[in-house]
Amino acid sequence: MSQTLLIELFTEELPPKALPRLGASFAQTLFDELSKLGFVDKDVEFHPFASPRRLAVSIPNVLAVQPEQQIEKKGPAVAAGFKDGQPTPALAGFARSCGVTPEQLEKTHDGKQDIFVFRATKPGEPLSGVLSGLVELALKKLPAPKMMRWGNRDGQFIRPIHGLIALHGNDVIPAKALHLDAGRVTRGHRFLSTGEISLSSADGYARTLYENGKVVASFAARRHLIEDRLTSAAHAIDATIAPSDGLLDEVTALVEWPVVYTGEFSADFLKVPQECLILSMQQHQKYFPLLDANGKLLPKFLVVSNLETADPSNIIHGNERVLRARLSDAQFFFQQDQKIKLEGRVGKLHQVVYHNKIGSQFERVERLTKLAGEIAAALGADRKLAERAAYLAKADLVSDMVGEFPELQGIMGMYYARIDGEDEQVARAIEGHYHPRFAGDTLPEGPIALAAALADKLESIVGIYGIGLIPTGDKDPFGLRRAALGVLRMLLTLPLNLKALLVSTAATFPAGVVSANVPDGVFDFMQERLKNYLAADYPAADIEAVLAFKPARLDDIQKRLAAVAEFKALPEAAALAAANKRIRNILKKVEGEIPALNPALFAEPAESALHAAAQTITGPVNNALAAQDFTGALKQLAALKAPVDAFFDGVMVMAEDAAVRGNRLALLAGLAELMNRVAELSLLAE
């Protein structure tokens, strides 16, 4: 008989940032283990629950008794089972391990020989016999923060556990976990519900808690409810909610009965950069700041409370009072920071260690200044503005505001630069040089910001890589992969040479810090990152073909990839790729130098025809490449299919005559050079 199984752990308040992972892990592990044992079909849809004070899962159609299991164990070969009429030690040991005599074993053929086999039917275990172990296993597998003990018990968990429910249909399963016996009793909301809640059945768990306990038990349902109520409250005052990573999930993990209230703060605080106010509200208070239609901060906020009351004025005023103190701190930091100009803060970077093998942030700023100027010059931008932006880029790290809110680095530098009267391009570059900060983030805007951003990321990559801290596996503590991806995304749009940039970057470090081979190592490292980045949009074979020659200029790579895609659609493409692969294989085996091509040595008409065809398209290919018309260049190659086929059908490349052989190799070498100027076509051959 199958019925719904409900397991609930009732606890003290669980860590909010970990709650979504805890709930998902607890439910998934229990379901997976029950499925492995045959208690429930693997296609059944189960329901996880996670609230501040409980982890639970409801699994429908769970059997009370595990299905019978057919056991089959293969033993030794029949030919080696008996000697002189007696079981061999191997057969006797196998029979003993199965709990039978050798005579009780069956025989079968395994496809090679006759062997002994033990077959039996094992009766299914009752759910009550395995459930305690499965719950304990689910607890051990939780992606849990630091464990704790409570009372005089030996068991450990993230928070003290006060109750365990294990219901199968209407019946309590006699399970145990962390010294607690399972029952059917839970509790509701800490303040809005009183007394115990006894569940008559495993079905209707969420409904019972909602109606009798003032608890929305499902994390997903609670999140959706909060999102809807926040959106409605914001729309009611013609506002939108400021975006925030993870705040909605964190708030969902803090409340069981969410209620949204609207609060206000003094408009005087709006003189402080809104990023500071937003961050203070989101990080410190878990409030939702509100923006007007132009994205400007309003002197209002939304708070998700865990208390519902007919008169919420005390709740609202209490939150407004707490926020006022927080915003006053931000206002004070902003006013204090303006007493020292950014330029006056740069010297303090001597006291900020970047890395003990590389030096201070001030020494780093000196490198960034030089490098940003060189990059700006290469882009045809104002070198002095780029140098100024790089010189001031890290100054806000020693400001009070960034000390309180590290996430505002760059943003505060931009505001302070404007207050100091710096050029607007410099101010924007101070903020923009951190971009892109994550996958999908915007690129820096304008050549000055691009120069500063490239300098910042290249210096970080070359310096950290240069002292041997190369990313391995999933370990990348200095974010070199992220920085490399940022550089690549920028260079895909800029006419700059990556190899030259790496050499210039290495030259900014003191002698002995970065070895001569580091630029090459970093270049290879970034080529791998480039392959990974492009893999989201292009086939792997196309990427390998375009990057085969490790191009140092990246701004035409996507055009080359698009051209390769069009080339592959040509009816001649497969044959040309295969021929190219054949040519490459022939040339790999050549020892010594290949002589210059001499048409006078052609001995077969097919040689002359292929040479003539190659000569005919060389001019158009060169013209197309000069115009970066890579598709046009590759389409010219279609004219080579017939003469290439005829050449390989009628010409012996490795002729006995050394001069003829060398000339034919020269013809193929020239053909390979002509065919592979956009991409290595041999890598497209199947």
What report would you give on this structure?
The protein is of the alpha+beta class. The protein contains 25 helices and 20 strands. A hairpin with a 5-residue loop joins strand 17 and strand 18. The longest helix has 25 residues, at 313-337. The model has no long low-confidence stretch (mean pLDDT 93).
Short account of what is shown:
With about 675 residues, the protein is α+β, with helices and mostly antiparallel strands.
Low-confidence spans: none
- Shape, please? flat
**Strand percentage, roughly?**
5-15%
Number of domains: 5
Overall residue-averaged pLDDT value: 93
The level of helicity is 40-55%
Termini Cα gap? 55 Å
| Largest β-sheet summary | 5 strands, antiparallel
Would you identify the CATH architecture of the largest domain? Orthogonal Bundle
Number of helices: 25
The CATH class label of the largest domain is Mainly Alpha
- Classify the fold: give the CATH topology of the largest domain: Hypothetical protein af1432
Q: In angstroms, what is the radius of gyration?
A: 36 Å
Structural class given helices, strands, pairing? alpha+beta
Strand order of the largest sheet: 2-3-1-9-10
Annotation, overall tally of beta strands:
20
